[in-house]
Amino acid sequence: MDDTLSWALVIDQIKRKLFQIVVIIFIGFSITFSLSDRIIRKITDDLLPLEILNAGQTNPCLAPTQLISTSPVEVVMVKLQISLFVGIALALPFIFYWVIQRLKRRYDINTFSISLWGVYGFILFEIGFSFTYFFLLPQAYKILVGLTTSADVIPLFSINQFMFFTVISILLFSISFEFPLIVTWLTVRGLVEVETLKARRKYVYVLIVLVAAVITADPTPVSQLLLSGPLIFLYEFSILVSTIIKRMR
Q: How far apart, in whole angstroms, are the C-alpha atoms of residue 13 and residue 189?
């Protein structure tokens, strides 16, 4: 009887948490959907070059970069996807907090330490997001559009493919900026020595360049260098932080 009552309480708590999560997602979804037109226009203005003409080209049709809809519901689906993505993103901190509280009841967890690592990871993610959105992607799109117009092809992009490519690129690049967090955590836990990181830095540099070549947008080495440069800097920064933490201990 006690086991049945205990399981009933657990199921009831899960239902209440799921209901709260669904409410948060719905609120974020509703607000974002009402602003979706402005969001799409803002992303388009920030990332796509307004005009790019190569030397010798005079055809005005090749100047502007435009988004097009290839189906009657494509724009609506993009708005729904963006709204759902933002809603889930808003719910993630609450899910993380609920999971930590549940684990804290069963295991000896240092909440302050987890919060500190979480803040560290959030800052790195924001740095990666800002770098990608305001610097890397505009340069990448400028190069891609330049390659398109140089072949005398009109750059008309599907709004669904454009938004999908943009969101995936931002996520990949922002997550790649969590690399120093992983390196620092491994050294703090004693799984990797700082001296090993220093001795293997040349191999890590090559690996970073290869990873940047895989996930970057354009076939030219410009985006690869733009991404690998900050990652190498963050790797060296993580070595410095790990050294300081080790000396403090």
A: 34
Confidence band for 61, pLDDT divided at 50, 70 and 90 = very low
Q: Where are the domains of the chain?
A: 2-171, 178-249
DSSP symbols for 10-62? HHHHHHHHHHHHHHHHHHHHHHHHHTHHHHHHHHHHHHS-S----TT---GGG
Residue 167: how many other CB atoms lie within 10 Å: 14
Name which residue leads in pLDDT, 59 or 204: 204
The torsion of the CA quartet 193, 199, 202, 208, rounded to 10 degrees, works out to 0
Q: Please state, in angstroms and rounded to a whole number, the distance separating the CA atoms of residues 55 and 204.
A: 40
Entry field: residues in the chain: 249
Give this prediction's pTM. 0.74
CA dihedral 90, 92, 96, 99 (to 10 degrees): 120
Residue 66 sits at φ, ψ, to 5 deg, of: -125, 155
pLDDT of residue 230 exceeding 70, the answer is yes
Rounded to whole angstroms, how far apart are CA atoms 233 and 177? 11
Strand-strand pairing, 66-68 and 156-158: parallel
CB atoms within 10 A of CB 28: 19
Contact (CB, 8 A) for 143 and 222: yes
CA distance 180 to 233: 9
Task: Count CA atoms within 13 Å of residue 152 on its CB side.
Answer: 4
What pLDDT digit, counting tens, does each position of 82-111 carry?
Answer: 999 999 998 888 888 887 777 676 666 677
